[in-house]
Amino acid sequence: MKMYSSSASSLRWTGFFLIFTTFCCLFTPVVMVKHENFKTCDQSGFCKRNRAYADTATQLSPGWTSPYNLDPNSITFKDGQLSGTILKSVGTAGETVRLPLTVTFLESGTARVTVDEEKRQKGDIVLRHDSKAKKERYNEASKWAIVGGLKVSTGAALSRETEAGSTRVHYGSSGQHEAVIQHSPFTIEFKRDGETQVKFNDRGFMNIEHWRPKIDKPVPENNEGEERAPEKVKEETDEDESTWWDESFGGNTDSKPRGPEAVALDISFPGYEHVYGIPEHASGMSLKETRGGDGNYNEPYRLYNADVFEYELDSPMTLYGAIPLMQAHRKGSTVGVFWLNAAETWIDVIKSKASTNPLSLGVKSAVDTQTHWISESGLLDVFVLLGPTPKDITQKYGELTGFTAMPQQFAIAYHQCRWNYVTDEDVMDVDRKFDKHKIPYDVIWLDIEYTDGKKYFSWDPLSFPNPKKMHNQLDKRDRKLVAIIDPHIKNTDKYPVVEELKSKSLAVKNKEGNDYEGWCWPGSSYWIDCFNPASIAWWKTLFKYDAFKGTGPNTFIWNDMNEPSVFNGPETTMPKDNLHYGNWEHRDVHNINGMTFHNATYEALLERKKGEIRRPFVLTRSFYAGSQRLGAMWTGDNLAEWSHLAASIPMILNQGISGFPFAGADVGGFFGNPSKELLTRWYQAGTFYPFFRGHAHIDTRRREPYVPGAPYTDIITQALRLRYQLLPAWYTAFHEASIAGSPIIRPNFYVHPDDEKGFAIDDQLYIGSTGLLAKPVVTEGADSVSVYLADDQPYYDYFDYTLYSGAGHHTVKAPLDKIPLLMQGGHIIPRRDRPRRSSGLMKWDPFTLIVVLDSAGNAEGTLYVDDGETFEYQQGAYIHRRFQFDKATKALTSINIGESGAKTAAWHKTMAKVRVEKVIIVGALDEWSGKTEVVVSEEGAKESARRKKVGFTYHPAQSGRAAWAVVRDPKVGIGKGWKVDFS
User: Fold this and answer.
1) Domains 45-217+245-401 and 404-732 share a fold
2) What mean pLDDT is predicted for residues 594-612?
3) Among 228, 544, 559, 890, which residue is least crowded by beta carbons within 10 Å?
4) At what angle do helices 390-401 and 727-740 cross, to 10 degrees?
């Protein structure tokens, strides 16, 4: 949600600022981002300085020499870790700055490069303004982002080969990776199988802004004997000092007590034309160049979590979250870098003609991609992931930062939301209307208006007098309620939450060390500091059922505005010189802030009631690397426009390959009123969002699925039923993400990494490993789409089995009531076909298996099932099966691929009666024509039932549609081993 709305007039703000804001909020805003509220690179001092530094290096090339040199006498290597000291030459007087270097080689084949600054590391600096801030560079980002994968390689070793001025280390499986560290100037090349994949400081842009005291010249007199203003002293490097010591923007002055402290590095990907990642931006998945030119950007990509009002598309502007992971891809290879830094970060992307390499064997791109990373503070801390496949990147990144949390079943079904359902009766009426129109949904949401005067953990006594009754009605259909809780706490009398926050000193502090006061929805507010363990402990107590009265086991939480959004702050967020737990400045931790609040709420939901452990569901708007461990995200406050529908697909795909796949966009668009056609097409697209929620601004017209009327309501209902029908496939994809870091929806390059024509395609998607390929309609009036097929396997229309074959573009008809959805040959897709009112009511329903034969007549797929709510799957309470159809044996088999645990037997017993009720074979073999029976056998069945004949129907190919066949009710248990014999 945003700070501009007609409801803002109810806020009890005082003073001119409040009156002015309230007056402005009476009007529906013009749809446009307010660029003047957000910095450009030229307005961000450290970005401007480092871009200028890069320009100087480029202009002087090849005469430019980087002033960073690794002291060879300082180099040590022990237990898979290389240490040394980089010496930065300053000015012409021979002064050097000592920068400790650590290069750690991990068992996974990942390398980590960390550069610190000795003076700050030792605290041997003087802070300005009597600041209470930490003297060190921020070194705790890994505490929040990293959860594993740091085991040091025992096989890493210094190379026996020697070369003057360099050090070589072999690492990775069988030593196929190599780091070549050049001493003077300092650079690193990372090689795989002898070929350079990634280069550090190849262009000499490395820049660690070292500490230095601020020195003012004596105040001279002018000719009249009057004092003139002091002049600042510049170092002999003639750097621009204007933003070293303080910086103003939007009426706020940042005091910068530590002076300039940016870190920057150029990272090159030789032979790679396409780079992806670094969300969140409203742009295409394959990143554009950022130094101008036709179709390119003039600004770097920015990572600085912010509440961007009505964001624009095709832009490198910052949005709500930041994941500093970039991967480069070409045919035969994928590599990645993870820039572990929580401060404001800018990234330039440049592409140039590649240099030839005799080792490339013709697979390298003719283009090199060169990037320039610039962060305001903190360590230079970079992980290098050498692939070689897209799956390797997401797997290794997930090992470091954690895999997607396995959600409750309801969380991947449909969510109904708007700002706001105005009363508890309103909520119950919406619930009843979904049932009346036979439309499935699982969750209804409450925005800020449910609270008593914007005081979180309370209910408005007039509009929500009986929340228990509301919860009970929802529970009858196994539905849930999500309530919003934001990090700003209203500053008002007789509000126990704010009184405790202040008395326990758990709020974020200003630069003087006092509680920071800003403005948000409640007016005057304080912000809980969730970097503080005591804050998390206190936060947990607020969600107990006896504390947050009116909630129950079917209540879950939405964390919004956690960038943090501060209406009267610089760039609509907190001043950078605010102080967090441990006296770290906000500038150091800004991009992690939202994740700490998300984490605190996740922890709170785990402990609402002693003995009641359920998987939490917490939606977040702000995120960082590692947020995927905690719940879902959405793309923020989009617009009800066709262009925003189109943009949602690459944005969500980019989230998936960047390690946070539980992602979605507001279906229908948050701002504005979509046409009925747009709303319908958006629901069809939303069917393929991992997080599927309809949402709307308070000033928009009601648009629940039953509102548009015929034929739109029926078409939307069919889209929702498709989502529910395929929930078994979706849940299996979520499980794969939870154990391997795989995207839940996947772009073409991820599924077909050698298909060069598809590397930039980001308007169609695959669902997990199912072979389902969707191309949502995102153009007004369209009645067909062009679907790109990357291989020669047969593809079949999901609904009528129309056959498409041959690599290239194919026109698929898509009238308004048709979703373009194809099935790639070679897969087996699990689904449940009985329509229900919520996913919880499907728990004991039978399964249907869609066997989609490939060109060789084979198919394979998996199914994962657990109880959908507890953590008992961690003790073996789940079913995990692999289904295989083998043309050679003419048999379909079910094979257990799960591992037994303490609760396996009990869980399988509860699922004993859940069966497979139908098997559909698409691309059925011609030889089955005329067959009326097949033989089914099941493990553990009684002797008389071990081999039984069941009905079989064959449908021949016709009118471009493939032959298909049906096995009718084989009555085999979903959790058992069995075989269907077609011979």
Assistant:
1) no
2) 95
3) 228
4) 70
Please indicate whether residue 943 is annotated as part of the active site. Answer: no
**Cα–Cα distance for residue pair 525/491, rounded to 1 Å:** 5
Q: What is the C-alpha to C-alpha distance for residues 815 and 812, in angstroms, rounded to an integer?
A: 10
Model-wide pTM > 0.90: yes
For residue 825, what pLDDT band results from cuts at 50, 70 and 90?
very high
Helix, strand or coil, per DSSP, at residue 863: strand
Place of tokens 């590692």: 626
SS3 409: helix
Is domain 846-983 classified as CATH 2.60.40.1180?
A: yes
Q: How many CB atoms lie within 10 A of CB 18?
A: 18
Q: What's the topology of domain 45-217+245-401?
A: Immunoglobulin-like (2.60.40)
Within 13 Å and on the Cβ side, how many CA atoms surround 319?
A: 25
Radius of gyration of the chain (CA): 29
DSSP letters spanning 738-760: HHH---SEE-HHHH-TT-GGGTT
Selected from 3.40.50.2300, 3.30.70.260, 3.20.20.80, 3.30.230.40, the CATH number assigned to the domain covering 404-732 reads: 3.20.20.80
The Cα–Cα gap between 319 and 307 comes to 7
Find where tokens 């033989």 sit.
Answer: 935
Classify the C-alpha dihedral 634-635-636-641 as positive or negative.
Answer: negative
Residue 459 has pLDDT above 90, yes or no: yes
Phi, psi of 732 (to 5 degrees): -65, -40
Q: Give the C-alpha separation, 709 to 756, whole Å.
A: 44
The DSSP letter of residue 103 is E
Q: The dihedral of CA 334, 335, 341, 343: what is its sign?
A: negative
pLDDT in tens, 500-527: 999 999 999 999 999 999 999 999 999 9
pLDDT class for 364, splitting at 50, 70, 90? confident
The catalytically annotated residue of 560, 666, 866, 917 is: 560
Q: Exactly one of 273, 563, 736, 791 is catalytic; name it.
A: 563
Instruction: Answer yes or no: are the C-beta atoms of 17 and 171 closer than 8 Å.
Output: no
Amino acid (one-letter) located at 169? V
Please give the Cα distance from 595 to 3 (Å, whole number). 21
Please give the structure tokens belonging to residue 548. Answer: 């947050």
The per-residue pLDDT for 318 is 97
pLDDT of residue 953: 98
Residue 586 main-chain phi, psi, to 5 deg: -60, -30
Domain boundary assignment for the chain: 45-217+245-401, 404-732, 846-983
Six token digits for residue 459:
């209910």
Catalytic residue at 585?
A: no
Give phi and psi for 53, each to the nearest 5: -60, -45
Query: Which residue, 438, 437, 439, 446, is CA-closest to 414?
Result: 439
CB 347 within 8 A of CB 301: yes
DSSP of 755-810: -GGGTT--S-EEETTTTEEE----STT--EEEEEE-SSS-EEETTT-BEE-SSEEE
Q: Is 563 a catalytic residue?
A: yes
- What b-and-e string marks burial along 333-371, b requiring 16 or more CB atoms within 10 Å of the CB? bbbbbbbbbbbbbbbbbbbeebeeeeeeeeebbebbbbb
**d(C-alpha 272, C-alpha 366), whole Å:** 8
Copy the structure tokens of residue 795.
């593809």
Beta bridge partners of 790: none
Sequence-separated (6 or more) residues with CB below 8 Å from residue 667: 682, 683, 685, 686, 689, 692, 693, 694, 695
CA distances from 64 to 94, 95, 164 (A): 18, 19, 21
> Residue 970's pLDDT is what?
96
Percent of the chain's residues with pLDDT above 90? 89
Given 368, 637, 704, 938, which residue is catalytic?
637
